[in-house]
Amino acid sequence: MVVEKVNEIDKIKLVDGFIFLLRNQLEETEDESKRRKIFDQLRNLFKKEVEKSNNKFLMDTFNKELRNLFWEEIEKVEDSIYRTELVDELKRLLWEEIKQTNTDTRIKLVDRLINLLGSEIEIINDVSIRIKLFYELNDLLDGEIKHTKDIDRRLRLINRLFDVSNDEIERTKDFDKRKDLLDGLVNFLNYGIKKISGIDEKINLVGRLINLLSIEIELANDIKEYKRKIKDNGKIMEISTYILHLESIKQDYVVLKNKFRKDRILKGFLELKNISIDISDKCNLRCKICNQWKDSNKHKKLEFEDIKKLMDQISKFYPNVTLEFSGQEPLLKKDLLFKCLEYGSRKNISLALSTNGTLIDKETAEQLMKFNLHHISISLDGFKEAHDYLRNKEDVFDGVVKGLKFLVNIKKNENVNTAVSVTTVITNYNVDKLLEFYHFLNELGIDSVNFNAYILDNSYFFNKRATYENNEFWVSPNKILKLKEVINELIKLKKENSKPTTTNSVKQLEAIPNYFVEKNKFKKGTCFAGNNYFHITNFGEVTVCGKGPRLNIKDYNLEEIWEHPNFKKTRLDVQNCKKLCLNNCFELT
After folding, report:
1. Global confidence as pTM
2. Domain boundaries in the chain?
3. Phi and psi for 258 in degrees, rounded to 5?
4. Helix (H/G/I), strand (E/B), else coil: 77
5. For the residues 36-64, what does the mean pLDDT come to?
6. Which of 11-20, 141-150, 318-327 has the highest mean pLDDT?
């Protein structure tokens, strides 16, 4: 070879030139057999230079080039056997370098190997090869988790191992193999949870495992039902035992998750993120599904100076908090509202507004949009007939839609970042047209929508003798099937990232039909109201879902309120709340 006949000074230039020439040929050649010959030449050249080089920098450079060469070729190769050969050789190269270094380079090499194995598992069709790669990746992640001292990296690796195992469980059709994979994941997480320091991270990981176990229990029950139909009694017994085993594990983790939540409350591992504040004690509507307009307290109301003091604290000590101005109807106190928004925006606070939308004319919309609020949330409970009936007043719907159009047009024409959102309460009066209503919101240009299930004892007509059966707003049994169809379609649209964005989680949407059907035994999970937000009444009292802690912002600063023993007690009371509701401040188990 010509490279062998020159002195050392010119050798690097010749090698680089030869590599450049071969790389160009490789890129221009589409025929796989010809590509393979050129690739082999390049590979041998790199390997030879690595073996002969005494210069560590050059050696590292050639090694890096060789790895990149393999990566590029693996992505282009269609022959599965040849691709497997290349992957195996690249794995060997990476492992050789990993063993020789203990620096940051090692972490980068390990991460590349993890990505290589992960991407191959995703595309490989041969089950035996895929399983082999899965266990390689599993062992690699397990070893790195035990090896690394970096807490953040360890958490990423634990979650990656969970994802890999979860994906493999979903791909595996064989019942016994699924059992083995799931048992392996559970055993690993028993170790992994102990290695995570953050309480929120622990809760998240345990929650993911609970979800996985729930899916597996549902699938096992389906298999059991099928085996019953074909009278495979031996398998039925085995599956029944397995289901009991899974349910026992799930219950243990539910208990553990609740323990972590309690620790988070008692030990103060909580971050305040949202505050809502009532600046008005009056409403211009008399909604049939709301009780608030009947509440006329005689306490001294908040004044601008009280709210200004609150915003000063938020700006200085809680810069990540969003402050939402709410009711009863905040636009009835427009002067106070705009004075607060003006001051809050100057303090760079994230501000928001919750309103019934009836008082938004063009001028009001223009004033609101100039503050660049985080969001404006407007209540709209379906089309005209349903909405106006629930609002107990004619022609309300038309006015609200007009206000929404003003906001959307200003947002679009003036490039404002404020999210225009709608909140809709699901009742017996809007179920039939809920999906059409969703598409109507899209036509209006609404950014997001949140669906709340109707709560019986929030109603104007509620009394202690009220029942679900005689309440006109509770979704009736003959509409449950329609509700399920609508919810399934909304979930599909959410997963497709359709507009408007549905802010409910998939899990919450899935729970809505059961909420209306199983009202006496519905398990909503643990309520976390108070863990990251609280509400302030129009006279300054801090409450969480009406349960306390009954501390007033006129008497305490934000930090004192957030850390107060009364607030910790309130959080525990709320967490154990048995009230039937399906609002966004809870977490399904």
Report:
1. 0.65
2. 1-100, 123-269, 274-587
3. -65, -35
4. coil
5. 67
6. 318-327
